[in-house]
Amino acid sequence: MSKLIDEPAFRNRKYVFEDRMAAGHLIAKKLKGLVGKDAIVLAIPAGGVPVGYVVAKELNLPFDVIVVRKIHIPWNPEAGFGAVTWDGYVIFNEPLLVNLGLSEEVVKRCVDEEKKEIKKRLKVFRGEKQFPDLRNKDVLLIDDGLASGYSMLATAISVKENSPKKIIIATPTASAHAIKLVKPYSDMIVCLNVREGFPYAVADAYRSWYDLSEGEVKDYLNL
After folding, report:
1. Whether the Cβ atoms of residue 71 and residue 80 lie closer than 8 Å to each other
2. Phi, psi of 126 (to 5 degrees)
3. Which tens digits make up the pLDDT trace of 6-65?
4. In sequence order, what are the residues at sequence separation of 6 or more whose Cβ sits closer than 8 angstroms to the Cβ of residue 36?
């Protein structure tokens, strides 16, 4: 059973972090002594990259990105009904998909659009660089927050196929529903700000939050 490490003082509170990097410092403190020396940090771009960069730097671990995209609802680009990973794994939020009433053709078009965006991001963020070998390693999967949790769920399932020793999900903030969703697919979850109730927004955990540009993500990867 996956263990959840949170921060009780932050539970159900908003605006508890100054920004993503400040949250990364707090995550790194929680992780010290909990991961092996052969661990690797994989951040989900774009928002997870500043958090992952700080964690990797403070724990002196290799840092890389793992590209995943939520499958956006056609009329609401801020929301998704599933996720696609860098290696083509697709997962749907089945209850939501039923309620949306999308045709198979529309669903396929949405998935294909995200696969195209993933291909573009892989080229921008990774170039010709090979994906790291995860066998027998503690793999830290990091994002700046989990709303529905499906992007992280898809990521964890995909990474599991690479035979890691452990999968550790680390995120500053998450909905209680997302924690419940990903918990069976990880060995440990570090989430400082768990929030119950609806609506939930990742941005509400931060006093300073904005969408990172591709250039900013590349800067972190090149530091």
Report:
1. yes
2. -115, -25
3. 999 999 999 999 999 999 999 999 999 898 888 999 999 999 999 999 999 999 999 999
4. 137, 138, 165
Residue 92: which of 106, 142, 186, 140 has the closest Cα? 106
3-state SS class at 42: strand
Residue boundaries of the structural domains of the chain: 3-67+134-222, 70-125
Does this model's pTM top 0.85? My answer is yes
CATH of domain 70-125: 3.30.1310
For residue 217, CA distances in Å to 38, 58, 80, 131, 157 come to 24, 18, 22, 17, 24
3-67+134-222 belongs to which CATH class?
Answer: alpha beta
Instruction: Give me the sign of the Cα torsion angle 57, 61, 67, 71.
Output: negative
Percent of the chain with pLDDT over 70: 99
Burial of 52 (0-12, 13-18, 19+ CB in 10 A): buried
In Å, how far from its chain's centre is CA 103? 28
Contacts of 205 (CB under 8 A, 6+ apart): 14, 15, 16, 17, 23, 145, 172, 173, 193, 195
Taking a C-beta distance cutoff of 8 angstroms, is the pair 155, 85 a contact? yes
